[in-house]
Amino acid sequence: MTSAKPFSMRFIFLLALAVPASAVCGSAVASTTGDPSAWRNDRPEQPSAVIVRNATIWTSGPRGKLEGGDLLVRGGKIRAVGEGLTAPAGALEIDAAGKHVTPGLIDAHSHAAITGGVNEGSNITTAEVRIQDVIDSTDVDIYRQLAGGLTAANLMHGSANSIGGQTATIKLRWGAPPAELFMANAFAGIKFALGENPKQSNWNVDERRYPQTRPGVEQSIRERFTAALDYRRKWNEHNASRDRNRVPPRRDLQLEAILEILDGKRGIQSHSYRADEIIMLMRIAEDFDFTVKCFQHVLEGYKVADELASHGAGASTFSDWWAYKYEVIDAIPYNGAIMWDRDVLVSFNSDSSELARRMNLEAAKAVRYGNVPEEEALKFVTLNPAIQLGVDDRIGSLEPGKDADFVIWSGDPLSTYSVAEQTWIDGRKYFDRADDLARRDAVTAEREALISKARSFKEKPEEEGEGSDETAPAEPESETEPETEPETETDAEPTAGALRQGVNR
Amino acid sequence: MSRSLTLLCCLALLPVSGAFAATTAYVGATVHPVSSPAIESATILVEDGKIVAVGTEVEIPADAVSFDMTGVHLYPGFVHPLSVLGLTEISSVRGTRDFSEIGEVNSDIRAEVAFHADSELLPVAMSGGILTAHVAPTGGVFRGTSAAVKLEGWNWEDMTMASGVGAHVAYPRLRARTGGFNPPTEEEVKERKEKALEALNETLDDTKAYATAMAAALEGKAPKPEYDAKLAALVPVLDGRMPLFLYADELSQIESALDWAKEREISNLVLVTGPDAAYLGERLAADGVRVLLNGVLARPDRDWEPYDAAYTAAKRLHEAGVEFCIGDGGDGFDAAHVRNLPFHAAMAAAHGLPHDVALRSVTLSAAELLGIGDRVGSLEPGKDATFIATNGDPLEIKTQILGAWIEGEKIDFSLDRQKRLHEKYDNRPRPDGDQPAVEGLREQGKG
Fold first, then answer.
1. So what's the pLDDT on residue A440?
2. How far is B333 from chain A (nearest CA, A)?
3. Does domain B3-77+386-415 fall into CATH 3.30.1490.480?
4. What gap in Å lies between CA A364 and CA A495, rounded to an integer?
5. In this predicted complex, what is the ipTM?
6. Cα(A258)–Cα(A223) distance, integer angstroms
7. DSSP letters of A228-274?
8. Tens digit of pLDDT for each residue in B297-307?
């Protein structure tokens, strides 16, 4: 459903009336307006200092979990976490008694906020293509995920290629343009994929593409690493040559990206399921003298947990998905617990714009299946993905010096009954549930006004105003013949009758 | 941790299938009947697979086998209201897809005849507390009839609790869906809509004629018409004996579907729908339409809708007075993940649905909607002894399910493929010097 309904501009006026009455937790700072059109949201202000008081603080850092703790933020960075902190004069005080505070959640595997398709399926290897070129900062899922406490995500291509494109780690700065979402100083990544998807097992293709087997996938990867070394050798020879007639090698952006992997400057994030292919990729890496940064999905990682730990690869897995393809018949929800127990760096990811709205509850599944201690389970969606993405110097835990990316929860973040009340990034409040709820009243009021206006036009059809059809479709007459459904409508817009009943909360 | 370890040990003493005595008493548990408030230190008395008494003053017969359930919570097993569980093993593998027939009119299809009693998905579902399911086919406009099944048994006949639970009919979409993978064009949607409406109306007209001709033949007033399985299967829908499960998700589609059902005088109607149904709460309540809300953990369809529109849908239906239960979407992917059903209800509870209603929406409300409310869904005398033991609120993800019983027989969790693989690889010898991260983790991890 596309956004930008004609009435959206108008309710900004109403919003101005509604928001001040809704301040929560004593916080007087406005969040984004939470408008579903990204560009209508101003960057939230950054108070010079913020102190969150009396909360249960899950730091995901060396301080562990603090009861009755304070979090002090200055200039968008965390200054201190502790008890009874002194705040500078003029600090924004948030009384969070009874609430819980966690680091902003991080999704290590996302396909949200990407323009167009996520697969460049033409070739088996496509290392030259880059997600950072196609970040869609207007995707409303960014806001919905903020509302679930998510503050950062690793955007990746799909799994159509054994060597896919370059990844982009973003912060969910709703309203900012793409370049401001992209974390330019994050460790560079590249998507790899093994198994059924690169070998095109589960869909019909007009023309089959090599490879169609796992051994073929292995060779397609080895071939590229060998070609990359050849490419470097040619350039080295060219640069060393004194032949005045020498012709420079043709630049190859794909091989240059692959050379970055070999140089340890670009980390592999490899879609994988089965134990055999996980071992296979680690052995290729060892043959070429580098380390696989992180396996994605890695649903049989529990079978080779010791090998993963020994190689030093991270594992970013689903909490409990299985049996949707043959290669995941042996997936178990204890995967995270077993790997964690055997010293693998484990995160849980979404791979789903819907699931990314509740990563805290995915973490709870590590407690359900395998009794991972609660604070360690939360790290599966905070510190651990930050390390896997090479951004743990900035985010992932509540420690002095890190970015002030945090979430205030109504209760225990691992409880199904808790909701995110506020989500902050860089010391700016990007989501506030109370503001969001208040905004809905404004929307409802605006709709009421528009609908009654539209109805008045309908009663006097000769005076029908421009655009009234679109803003408020007329209530259906007693539609006994479904065929009479107006065919011109392309939006799944609720009818006036439904809207009048109130759609909010 | 040590507490749940103790509970596990005590539950391990319970007899596994075949060994149960005629009368069994589960003593000292916190019993959550669902049909009434929780009872502390209560006893459930089971005889021949049926509950005969629940309460604090249950008289335990001298020859009964008693089990101390102190510290354990007992709940009815979850009732999954709509799934292709047992009709598929791995939905991407064509040979295991027995839920979707080709053609538009498949009203004679019976789901239960392909229910795979030894599906690997079933023990996993039971470990997650799903003990009863409603399985329905999904192909075509008239999709066929569904069955309620218990998830433990020797074969589909043994496991079918009720066949012909409903006739399943997909009402066509009126508008193209936007987004998603390969969305159909407006033209394709229009063409499909017209074709589907034609199939809908013609088939019901034919069924009516068939029923009339059959009645006339029975009275000897006319020759018997040639048997038509597709029409014969729909006759019980016309006279209201069998509910029509009508599928419609998008708002205009739902409104049109309800109009159509009224025009066709469908008296026994269940609307299988999504969060948009919450916009029509008043109408659904006034018309007495029962609702199967398929999916709480869903994104809003429209950008401008509140981010929690699907989370609050159940609450809005409840407040409008609609009779409803909660499902999970019910597709091939979902079949492997039915154990997450209670967490759909939990999300609704986190967004305003009263907790007791949320719990009911995945137990008794589902059983009632399926017509098996006299058998399962609550812990009451006369009902099947189909229940689960937990260490807390089963709508909380952190809570663990410690045991499950169907008709009084304890489910053997070691048949769960996932628990077997866990056991095997958790016990893989460690590299020299490596110790478990938490003492006793392995033992505790079996929960």
1. 87
2. 6
3. no
4. 39
5. 0.93
6. 11
7. HHHHHHHHHHHHH---TT--PPPP-HHHHHHHHHHTTSEEEEEEE-S
8. 999 998 889 99
For the domain made up of B78-369, give the CATH fold: TIM Barrel (3.20.20)
- Please give the Cα distance from A123 to A147 (Å, whole number): 37
Q: Which of B303, B302, B305, B315 is nearest to A439 (CA)?
A: B305
* Of residues A186 and A502, more confidently modeled: A186
Residue among B249, B255, B303, B413 with most chain A CBs within 10 A, to mutate? B303
| Inter-residue contact B377 to B359 (CB < 8 Å) | no
Among the listed residues B284, B354, B365, the one whose alpha carbon sits nearest the alpha carbon of residue B317: B284
Tell me which residue of B397, B439, B359, B22 sits closest to A378, measured CA to CA. Answer: B397
Q: Residue B177 to residues A89, A305, A351, B298: CA-CA distances in angstroms?
A: 53, 42, 22, 15
DSSP 8-state class, residue A476: P
Tell me what percent of the residues of chain B surpass a pLDDT of 70: 92
Q: What is the structure's pLDDT at B175? A: 81
The beta-carbon neighbor of B175 closest among A341, A357, A489 is A489
Strand partners for A268: A190
Question: CA nearest A113: which of A63, A154, A159, A81?
Answer: A154
Q: What's the predicted TM-score (pTM) here?
A: 0.89
Residue B147, SS3 per DSSP: strand
Assigned token pair, A212: 């169609």
Whether A152 has a pLDDT exceeding 90, the answer reads yes
Residues A149 and A413: beta-carbon distance below 8 Å: yes
Q: Where are the domains of chain B?
A: 3-77+386-415, 78-369
pLDDT on residue B268: 97
Reported confidence tier of residue B436, pLDDT bands at 50, 70, 90: confident
Q: Which residues of B touch A501 (CB under 8 A)?
A: 279-282
Is B44:B389 a contact under the CB 8 Å cutoff?
no
Tell me the shortest Cα–Cα distance from A326 to chain B, in angstroms.
6
Q: Which of A333, A340, A501 sits opposite B418 (nearest CB)?
A: A333
Q: Kindly report, residue by residue over B280-331, the tens digit of the pLDDT.
A: 999 999 999 999 999 899 999 988 899 999 999 999 999 999 999 999 999 9
Closest residue to B90, CB basis, from A329, A371, A494: A329
Using a CB-CB cut-off of 8 Å, the residues of chain B touching A498 are 251, 255, 279-280
- φ/ψ of residue B18, rounded to 5: 90, -25
Say which range, A19-28, B92-101, B295-304, B317-326, has the weakest mean pLDDT: A19-28
At A498, list the tokens: 């439904």
What tens digit of pLDDT does each residue of B226-258 get?
A: 999 999 999 999 999 999 999 999 999 999 999
Q: Identify from B397, B402, B423, B427 which residue to disrupt to test chain A contact, counting A C-beta atoms within 10 A and taking the largest count.
A: B397
Closest CB to B259 among A323, A416, A482: A482
Strand pairing partners for B162? B148
What residues 301-330 of chain A have any CB closer than 8 A to a CB of chain B? Answer: 302-303, 305-306, 310, 320-326, 329-330
Amino acid at A478: S
Distance, in angstroms, between A482 CA and closest chain B CA? 6
Q: What is the pLDDT of residue A462?
A: 53
Q: Are A306 and B428 a contacting pair at CB < 8 A?
A: yes
CA-to-CA distance for A52 and B41, rounded, in angstroms?
A: 42
Closest CA to B168 of B86, B254, B232, B243: B243
All residues of chain B having their beta carbon less than 8 Å from the beta carbon of residue A354 are 297-299
pLDDT-based confidence at residue A443 (cuts at 50, 70, 90): confident
The distance of A494 to chain B (nearest Cα, Å) reads: 6
